[in-house]
Amino acid sequence: MKRLLIILTLFAVILLAGCTQSGTNDKINIVCTIFPQYDWVRQIIGEQGDNFDLTLLLNSRIDLHNYQPSVDDIVKISACDLFIYVGGESDEWVDGVLEHATNPDMIVINLLEILGDDALIEEDGDEEDEHAWLSLRHAQMFCTAIADALSSLGFETADNLIAYIDKLKSLDAEYNTAITVASVKTLLFGDRFPFRYLAEDYGLNYYAAFAGCSAETEASFETIIFLANKADEFNLKTVMVTESSDQAIAKTIINNTAAKNQQILVLDAMQSVTSNDVKNGTTYLSIMENNLNVLKKALR
User: Fold this and answer.
1) C-beta of residue 131 within 8 angstroms of C-beta of residue 195
2) pLDDT averages per 10-residue partition of the chain, 300 residues
3) Would you say 219 and 209 are in contact if contact means Cβ atoms under 8 Å apart?
4) What is the distance in angstroms between the CA of the first residue and the CA of the last residue of the chain?
5) Bridge partners, 186 (sequence order)
6) Considering only CA atoms, which of 28, 35, 80 is closest in space to residue 58?
7) Beta strands of the chain (E only): which ranges?
8) What span, in angstroms and rounded, lies between the C-alpha atoms of 120 and 127?
9) What SS3 state is found at 278?
C-alpha cells in the first residue's frame, strides 16, 4: 500500500516529465533495477554500447527489498524502450509505473515471470524467492530473453549471446565439479539466505538465521543455539554471511560453538553493487567466480 501511495503521488510528475524525456536522443533507453540485469545487458550489447542509454536503478548500495523509486527513476522507467525487473514482492511498485508509462511500445522483462513454475517459494511464506539471478543456469534463460528483446528493437546480438552463455555454462560446470568433490555439503549462514537458487542447483544443504527476504535483524537465542549446534554437529569450519552483514550474528554463533574458532566467509548476493564498482571492473561473472572460490573454502 505504501508503494502504491508513492506511485499515485508521483503520477502528475510522470505525466509532465515523462513526456518531455521521450525522444530526446536517438539512443535506445534501457532501465534495469539491479546489477546482474545491468551487466547482462552490457555483455550482450558488447561493442554496440554507444547505441544505448543504460540505467542501473539500485546504484547506492540500497538492496532490492528496501528500494523506493525516486521521481527521476519513475520518469526514466516511464519513457524507456526496455525495462528489466525481478518481479517479486519487492517490485510491487512497478505495476503502478507501467500502467501510466509514456512509451506504449516499451518492452518489459520480468525475471520471475520467465521462470514460471521454476521460481522457488520463500520458506517462511507464500511469496516467490526473488534472488533468481544467483543461479548461473537461470542467468542463461534471462540473457536469452534480453537478447530477444534487443532483436525486437533492431539489434542483433546472437554472437555476443552465444559467447556469454558459453562463459556461464563453463562457470556452472566449475561450480558443479567443485561441489561434487567437496568433503562438506552444508552451509551455515549467520545472516539472511538469498542463495537458495544456487543451493538447489548444486544440491547443497543449508541452515540460516533468516529466510532470504526476511526483514528481521535480530536472531533469537534459540536460533543462535540451533545454528551453533549445527556447526558442531557437522564440524563446520566456517560461518557464512552476505556482503551487507555486520557479522554480529555470525560472531555470536561462533562464540556458542564448542570450537569457537570458525572463520567468517562472505558470499556476495550482488545487492549492493554500484556503477563505481562497474567502472573498477566488477561484473556478474567476476562476482560469481569469487563466490565459487569462497565456497571452495567453506566446503573443504
Assistant:
1) yes
2) 49 48 72 97 96 92 84 95 96 94 96 97 88 98 98 96 98 98 97 96 97 79 98 98 95 98 97 91 98 97
3) yes
4) 46
5) 205
6) 35
7) 28-32, 52-56, 82-85, 107-110, 186-189, 205-208, 238-242, 263-267
8) 9
9) helix
